[in-house]
Write a sequence for this structure.
């Protein structure tokens, strides 16, 4: 799944360079050119990281950083050309994760972004790839043998339940609509309806979740579908 990055910068030539470089690495890039637009986009969308300039129209970057921290812990890299702003950022009063001073090297910025994304993935508990599958906390899945274990004990899944779990574990945090799951797991020619997905997700939760009504793995995005966390 491609990482989603929000760039908040009013200098369009800088935006163009960062956007092109990140998209070359397969990332999805959104852009805001002022502080108010940045806050609106951050509230309306989920991003893996924000690159945020300090000097912005309408709201400055420090105000935007504080605003984002009121509702999100998305990693933020600040861009600044002023030493006094750098001192504020380093004081951690504004909740930024890192900073870079202008002019900066785009390769160094990319390296910082990738390092923070790796740390965030470990912190979020993304499944750890193994030789035959994935492991997350007490859940293990083996692709070749199609076996699933919870706390070392084997769990018997149907073929479609396994296919669902495999898809979820390979695409952590991606929200799938019921239609997408039906088409991906059952195939486009399947004559059933989306209620089939709900039934299989419920049965899968009953087998892998300690408390199916309060799941820690397979979550519902109300009005949309399901995702693995």
């Amino acid at each position: 799944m491609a990482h989603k990055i929000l760039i908040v910068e009013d200098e369009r030539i800088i935006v163009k360079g960062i956007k092109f470089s990140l998209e070359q690495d397969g990332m999805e890039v959104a852009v805001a050119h002022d502080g108010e637009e940045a806050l609106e986009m951050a509230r309306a969308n989920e991003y893996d990281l924000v690159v945020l300039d300090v000097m912005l129209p309408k709201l400055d970057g420090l105000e935007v950083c504080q605003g984002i921290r009121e509702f999100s812990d998305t990693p933020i890299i600040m861009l600044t050309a002023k030493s006094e702003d750098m001192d504020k950022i380093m004081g951690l009063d504004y909740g930024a994760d890192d900073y870079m001073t202008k002019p900066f090297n785009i390769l160094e910025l990319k390296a910082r972004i990738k390092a923070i994304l790796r740390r965030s993935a470990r912190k979020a508990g993304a499944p750890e790839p193994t030789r035959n599958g994935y492991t997350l906390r007490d859940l293990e899945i083996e692709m070749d043998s199609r076996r699933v274990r919870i706390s070392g004990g084997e769990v018997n899944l149907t073929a479609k339940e396994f296919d669902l779990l495999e898809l979820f574990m390979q695409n952590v945090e991606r929200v799938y609509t019921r239609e997408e799951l039906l088409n991906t797991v059952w195939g486009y020619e399947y004559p059933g309806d989306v209620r089939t997905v709900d039934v299989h997700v419920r049965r899968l939760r009953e087998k892998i979740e300690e408390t199916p009504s309060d799941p820690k793995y397979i979550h519902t995005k109300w009005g949309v579908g399901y995702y693995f966390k």
